[in-house]
Specification:
Elements lengths: L3 E2 L11 E3 L1 E2 L1 H4 L13 E3 L8 H6 L2 E17 L5 E15 L6 E12 L22 E12 L3 E8 L2 E2 L2 E2 L9 E12 L2 E12 L16 E2 L8 E11 L2 E10 L3 E15 L3 E14 L7 E12 L2 E11 L24 H9 L10 E11 L8 E12 L2 E13 L4 E12 L4 E13 L1
Length: about 450
């Protein structure tokens, strides 16, 4: 079962806290996404140094080379279909120092460079791989002072995290990262807390063309008057691969969000037959008349048998007129999220459409299935088909996704995602093909 890939090179010299990074399949919210431990932290102590200078003498470099291609064809109302594509090469390059009195440094730069010989003219170029001006980018996305011990870990600076309402959502050339502080405390092997304070972010989800804010620039989470986001969580692992978690996020000038989740795996016949399950609930209270307000409930189940899997998920949201729910900063936690559509997007679309309504409730379901080919000798190859519908009084969105992922070796990883999107809300339809190949070193 393809579950997660690590934040850096997988060896005994990686930083003491390694955040498990989800594959694009999981970040897209597909049926085969891992249920238990979605926000799990794995600890691995780094090499120790005997002086400040030797911290850098023993530094380890790491990186990821990424080659990606995207092709999309959009059609809105009676406007002729617009086809765009792009190819880019880049990735992630950084280093981790050794630790001195449990302190160490972590730095990583994200890169996306267009391949001119393969890319069309500017008006025919898909800009998802580039900044708001359609240009290539290089920027320091992660730069932190870390402290790591067996029970306590913290990062100060620019960090990458995956939490319900602030996450990396690595869906194009570079993931989201945040500026601030993150802490993990392990009370016992089964009980832990995460604390966070973020003021800015960068990445694909952070860009805003209207405000001329590029994905490679760190900008305020909300606005200049907001002090940012404070968050805390408590997670209890009540059985192997099964846990209950409670999260609270206070996002100044936006919303106070309480989120609870129970996820797990029920084994029926060893590893051959098991069911992943999850239930979630979110209460979103607006702050400063932001209109971000509502409640979300959700449930999901995925049945696995000898490589085949079949699953379904359902979400329902409740908001008053002109109010809407949010994904937060990234892809959001909702079980029905697809490669493109999320229940929060249709909720916000209805609230800002100007059409009269007594409320802004929304519902979504997602079904899908696929096969893990490791049972027939192709370890790491997974094929998946997904269908989802999201609707409210504003209209309906239908989406079909086909996802192929392949963990070729410990270093090589490839994926392809095809998306067919149809929305009656704004008469917007498109189909998109995304292909990425990663080499980790």
């Amino acid at each position: 079962m393809i579950d997660m890939i690590l934040i850096a090179a997988v060896d005994n010299t990686t930083p003491s806290v390694i955040e498990k990074r989800e594959t694009a399949l999981q970040q897209s919210g597909m049926v085969h996404s891992k249920v238990a431990g979605r926000f799990e932290i794995v600890k691995e102590l780094p090499k120790e140094a005997d002086s400040f200078n030797s911290m850098f003498d023993y530094a380890d470099t790491f990186g990821k080379l990424r080659l990606a291609y995207i092709d999309s064809a959009h059609k809105i109302s009676n406007i002729p279909k617009e086809e765009k594509d792009a190819t880019a090469f880049g990735g992630e390059f950084g280093f981790n120092t050794a630790s001195f009195y449990d302190f160490s440094f972590h730095v990583s730069a994200y890169v996306s460079q267009g391949i001119n010989s393969l890319n069309p003219s500017r008006n025919k170029r898909n800009e998802d791989f580039f900044d708001v001006n359609g240009e290539s980018f290089v920027y320091v996305a992660e730069a932190s002072l870390d402290y790591n011990s067996e029970l306590f870990q913290t990062r100060l600076g620019r960090v990458r995290v995956d939490t319900p309402y602030a996450n990396s959502d690595d869906i194009r050339m570079a993931p989201n990262t945040f500026e601030g502080a993150w802490v993990n405390i392990d009370y016992t092997p089964t009980l832990k807390t995460q604390l966070m304070y973020f003021t800015k972010w960068a990445g694909y989800d952070s860009q805003n063309e209207e405000a001329d804010e590029a994905q490679d620039e760190f900008k305020n989470l909300v606005d200049n008057d907001s002090f940012g986001m404070l968050g805390a969580s408590l997670t209890y692992e009540y059985a192997k691969n099964s846990e209950a978690s409670f999260w609270y996020n206070y996002i100044d000038s936006m919303a106070a969000i309480t989120y609870a989740e129970i996820v797990g795996i029920y084994f029926i016949d060893g590893e051959h037959f098991h069911i992943d399950y999850g239930v979630q609930a979110s209460n979103i209270q607006e702050l400063d008349d932001s209109n971000v307000d509502g409640n979300v409930l959700g449930a999901m189940a995925i049945m696995h048998y000898s490589g085949a899997f079949l699953g379904a998920a359902y979400n329902i949201s409740y908001s008053d007129e002109q109010k809407y729910i949010t994904d937060g900063f990234g892809g959001g936690p909702y079980y029905t999220s697809l490669d493109e559509a999320t229940i929060s997007a249709i909720s916000e679309g209805a609230a800002t459409s100007g059409k009269p309504a007594t409320d802004n409730d929304a519902k979504a379901f997602r079904i899908g299935g696929g096969y893990e080919f490791e049972n027939i000798g192709l370890d790491g190859l997974v094929l998946e088909f997904v269908y989802g519908e999201l609707s409210n009084d504003h209209g309906k969105i239908k989406e079909k996704d086909v996802i192929l992922t392949y963990d070729i070796t410990e270093r090589w990883y490839a994926e392809a995602v095809y998306t067919d999107y149809q929305s009656s809300c704004d008469n917007n339809t498109f189909d998109r093909t995304l292909i990425r190949v990663d080499y980790n070193f």
